[in-house]
């Protein structure tokens, strides 16, 4: 077998990562021989003969994918993304303790943070309670004020609260992603990622523009635990990614904390307590003993809730306030803001909402540019329905018995013109399009919707989604918006 030796060190690391990255075997060879060049000089045949590589691994090692490596290097230069390898001065040395440490890390932001050893991971459920959000926000702020960097996973819920708390306190934070840079996973978090990149550091071991895979988040969680000196699980159910992070922390012999039960209790944290986690009662001791830092404000109790952070309650903001808080223009924030507001309304329905709202308060309408419903229609919707009266003969209601009375009542009061005309719109021709493109078009409506959620419901892969979107855009059948949103054209 021909031995291929590459003179460029970064090319060597990248091609080695394609061949053996993510495996304990690949990491063991680097520990023993220090560089990919030294491994290749010994030869894939030799390692196969002594049983260190199987036939597939040996074949991949002997055929370095140089073209893909050069492409990734060019993309990273174009977007100013850094590539960190174990011989890079900013590679986080604590990760080398992992049995399957990252051969290559992609970084965006202040790579000097990789040298910091005083880090605490704050993780928890995406469906966090208000108390959990406030607790994570306060805890991260307190750590930041005392020189400890907060690490988390850039997800919604506890993760975003922790990142926001660290940034608001003027400290640094590290966000670890399960997807490649350039792939807009969780578009709701686009502005948070932008701020982390500006004031902290984003890390991922996934190549640029690559969607997360089924295993991506578990591997991300091992990095979160690996970077941190201690891990705090704020809130969790009996299952979830935060418990996976806690499991990695235990394997890596990291100190594991959960909130004191009188401050915040959850089933997952109760289970961790039974398995040896410590209750976080005295934050000063935790910082001094486990991080060696001087505590600035030792008498502030964590059980006292902070005022709600507006960044964690986007439904309580106007579009302009949301944009100003995230340091972007309102036009940039509109699509994401509308999606967040809609989700918040669905998650916490209020039966008196329509009585308390004004057109300016209907944030999703402001974001989408539509107007509030006519007052007469609102009043008609509040009135009790006519009881047990048959529709007049020959009326549209009589011809369509499947329609509900709720839909008919506002129509009788003052039917909005657009809704009356919508069923009459001709359908665009979809002939000649693949089935995936037709299914995606059928799933979209007139209002912008999140493509990632639609892809999940249809069972699309990232590649299938991109192909379907491109085909529909070429035929001008759909429109796309910032934040990975789309609607029918």
Structural write-up:
By secondary structure, the protein is an alpha/beta fold. The chain has 4 domains: 9-78, no CATH class; 95-310, Rossmann fold; 313-379; 435-488, Orthogonal Bundle (Arc Repressor Mutant, subunit A), CATH 1.10.10.10. The protein has 24 helices and 12 strands. It has helices at residues 9-20, 24-33, 36-42, 44-49, 55-62, 66-79, 130-145, 158-168, 190-199, 216-227, 241-251, 267-274, 283-291, 319-325, 330-347, 353-356, 363-368, 375-382, 396-399, 405-413, 417-421, 435-443, 451-458, 462-474; strands spanning 82-84, 105-109, 119-123, 149-152, 173-176, 201-204, 230-233, 255-259, 278-280, 449-450, 478-481, 485-488. The chain has a 9-stranded mixed β-sheet, sandwiched between helices. Helix 1 packs antiparallel against helix 5 and helix 22 (435-443) packs across helix 24 (462-474). The protein is globular and about 65 Å long. The relative contact order is 0.07.
Helix fraction bin? 40-55%
Largest sheet: 9 strands, mixed
- Strand-residue proportion: 5-15%
Number of strands: 12
Q: Count of DSSP helices?
A: 24
Spatial strand arrangement across the major sheet? 1-2-6-5-4-3-7-8-9
How far apart the termini lie comes to: 56 Å
According to CATH, what is the class of the largest domain?
Alpha Beta
CATH topology of the largest domain: the name is: Rossmann fold
Overall form: globular
Low-confidence stretches: 348-426
Radius of gyration: 27 Å
The chain-level structural class is alpha/beta
Mean pLDDT: 77
Count of separate structural domains: 4
The CATH architecture category of the largest domain equals: 3-Layer(aba) Sandwich
